[in-house]
Amino acid sequence: MAARSGKPSIDKFEPSHNVSLWLHRLNTERTLRQWQDAEAVAQASLLVGDVPLTWMLNNCNADTTWAEFVNGMKARFGENEQTILARITHRKQHENENVQAYVDEMNMLFSQTNIPDAMKSDILTDNLKPSLRTQVVATIPRTMQQVIDNATYLEERANGAVADRLKRWDQQQHRSSSDPVERITKSMEKMTLALNNNFNRQGPMHDMRPPNRPLPPRPHPAPFSVGNAKNLGTALLTARTHLPPLTMLMQVYSNHMHVIW
Q1: Is 204 in a helix, a strand, or coil?
Q2: Helix (H, G, I), strand (E, B) or coil at 249
Q3: I need a surface site. Which of 9, 109, 191, 257 has the fewest CB within 10 A?
Q4: φ, ψ for residue 177, nearest 5 deg
Q5: What are the residues facing 48 on neighbouring strands?
Q6: Phi then psi for 63, rounded to 5 degrees?
Q7: pTM of whole model > 0.70?
């Protein structure tokens, strides 16, 4: 994968900022740009204010690893666990904030604590914006991932993204299939032509009845037509109320398809 070029789009870090969030964003840039440790620390010195820069000049050098830099910044400008827990509790999803951005920051905060997964799921749900929280709770999610998936789906549905996907899927289905009635008619026409060709090629089938039971006199039928096949459904519905099932089928197929029984 090619390294990203250009200036990192990260705000300068000041002591009043969240150092963990800033380091998380900087680490993402480091991965995308494929920086080595020395280059990453040097780039970080360009993205800090005066106070953090003074600390770096006094504590970092060309041999400082990325891990040493991160741990040093957290120790100097970081928050203790109680402060982080307070931030987690009060971190609410903003009304115009999408689910993914909210989840990313919450996961970053969770990574700095030992909160059990079950509690993370409850906190994540409770801190969703009210319009979304009620719907997510109604889905009865059992894991944190289900909370995220359900919230994302509900958000997309509210924004019309789900409806758009369903509409595109429906359009694809319509393009790949014709009207049901037309499809059935074509299928029956193909069946009619196939049976007609088979009849002309092979002639009437031999009767399997014992020789002591002569066949009733019957005129030799002509091959059936496509038009007969189209009327087969009507004939079945008409005969159903007057004849037993087996007799009905024999009579209808005999009259409309001229099959030799």
Answers
A1: coil
A2: helix
A3: 9
A4: -145, 145
A5: 13
A6: -95, 0
A7: no
Extract the tokens encoding 192: 């009619």
CA atoms within 13 A on the CB side of 37: 11
Rounded to whole angstroms, the Cα distance separating 219 from 232 reads 21
Taking residue 170's Cβ as centre, other Cβ atoms within 10 Å add up to 10
Residue by residue, pLDDT tens for the chain (261 residues) are 455 556 677 889 988 788 888 999 999 999 999 999 999 999 999 999 999 999 999 999 989 999 999 999 988 888 777 778 888 988 999 999 999 999 999 998 898 888 998 899 999 999 999 989 999 999 999 999 999 999 999 998 888 765 566 666 666 666 555 555 565 566 666 666 666 555 555 555 455 555 566 656 655 555 444 444 445 555 545 544 444 554 544 554 455 454 444
**Cβ–Cβ < 8 Å for 187, 181:** no
User: In whole angstroms, what is the distance from residue 60 CA to residue 76 CA?
Assistant: 13
For the chain, where are the alpha helices, taking DSSP H only? 19-33, 37-45, 50-59, 66-77, 81-90, 99-110, 117-126, 130-138, 144-159, 161-176, 180-202, 226-230, 232-240, 245-257
Q: At residue 51, what are phi and psi to the nearest 5 degrees?
A: -65, -50
* Rounded Cα gap, residues 117 and 103, in angstroms: 14
Task: Say if residues 52 and 110 touch (Cβ distance below 8 Å).
Answer: no
